[in-house]
Design brief:
- The chain is of the alpha+beta class.
- The protein has helices at about 5-30, 55-70, 105, 125-130, 155-165, 165-170, 220-240, 255-280, 285-290, and strands at about 35-45, 75-80, 85-95, 115-120, 145-150, 180, 185-190, 195, 200-205, 210-215.
- The protein has 2 domains: about 5-150, no CATH class; about 165-300, no CATH class.
- A 5-stranded antiparallel sheet has the order 4-1-3-2-5, covered by helices on one side. Strands 6-7-8 form a 3-stranded antiparallel sheet. The protein has a two-stranded antiparallel ribbon with strand order 9-10.
- Strand 6 (about 180) and strand 7 form a beta hairpin.
- The protein is globular.
Length: about 300
């Protein structure tokens, strides 16, 4: 099955944003808080005015404003592109009854263009209308985060991570297991330490990045061990190359050249190790994968 990175990213944006909004709503209701929800729209004056830290600076200012008044900043946001090509942000903020927000552009919180504040009743449905859009990811500026959230308690942060995990992870772990991505591939429970690996591999077939089901004799632990060896060689080579001071005309020592050669040799060995175990594979059908998102295979891409 050819993999569509844009489709996967749009799906993650939708799932992450709507789940965060639902959990924040539940958290406020469970705590017995009287609240209202503001939808803040942030628009750029210039089409190419986006900078990576703009939305972060705005959120930091909001957090400090509410903290001075004794309130926790609870929010979720999503980015989209306007027809003219400018980045556009929609931010949901949960506020206590009686508390309001000043107009961000008038207070200097958003000096990049205009803002609008609306009060919404159905916060989850409102943000879903924006998060559910299938954006052309290729048009986004490089480095743009497309969604985020904050203010969830520990239990609900754990639940949000679980919903963002692939389906094969959710089948193996409960929310209380708190599965996390594991170094070298797979997922590991932050509670029990149990590790599981993906039943899929990602590789190229016919010039396209495709999804493969692992052979029955695929040894995840052996691949992970080889990956650890490769990483150790990489760290050792990096350490050796950084020891001397770099000056004009500097020539690496024989030991440093050996470190670089050892790294390349280890990399080739790892790729050969994987290739031997793949054999002639065919991409699986979409129905076989159940439309799941799948992470990269253990270790570096190969």
């Amino acid at each position: 099955m050819p993999l569509d990175a844009a489709k996967s990213r749009n799906r993650r944006k939708k799932c992450g944003t709507i789940t965060a909004a639902r959990l924040l709503q539940e958290q406020m209701q469970e705590g017995g808080f009287r609240y209202k929800v503001a939808m803040v729209t942030l628009t750029y004056r210039d089409v190419d005015g986006w900078r990576a830290r703009d939305v972060r600076d705005f959120l930091t200012t909001c957090r400090e404003y509410l903290k001075r008044r004794g309130f926790t900043f609870r929010y979720t946001w999503v980015a989209e592109l306007q027809k003219r090509g400018a980045v556009h942000y929609h931010v949901l903020i949960w506020l206590p009854r009686g508390q309001t927000l000043p107009k961000p552009d008038q207070r200097g919180w958003w000096p990049h263009g205009s803002t609008r504040i609306e009060w919404v009743r159905n916060a989850v449905g409102y943000i879903a209308g924006y998060a559910g859009k299938d954006e052309d990811i290729s048009r986004f500026p490089k480095g743009l985060r497309i969604c985020g959230s904050g203010g969830l308690d520990k239990r609900r942060r754990m639940e949000r991570r679980w919903w963002l995990s692939p389906a094969w992870v959710r089948r193996e772990y409960a929310i209380s297991d708190d599965p996390r991505r594991a170094e070298g591939g797979g997922y590991v429970s932050a509670v029990t330490g149990e590790r599981i690996y993906s039943p899929f591999l990602v590789g190229y077939y016919g010039g396209a990045l495709c999804l493969f089901r692992k052979p029955l004799d695929y040894d995840d632990e052996a691949v992970y061990a080889e990956w650890q060896a490769w990483k150790s060689a990489a760290n050792r080579a990096l350490h050796e190359s950084l020891e001397p001071d770099y000056i004009d005309g500097y020539v690496p020592t024989p030991e440093q050249r050996l470190g670089s050669e050892g790294l390349e040799k280890s990399r080739r060995r790892f790729v050969d190790f994987i290739t031997e175990r793949l054999g002639p594979l065919q991409p699986i059908k979409v129905s076989d994968a159940g439309g799941e998102r799948v992470p990269s295979p253990p270790g570096p891409s190969c």
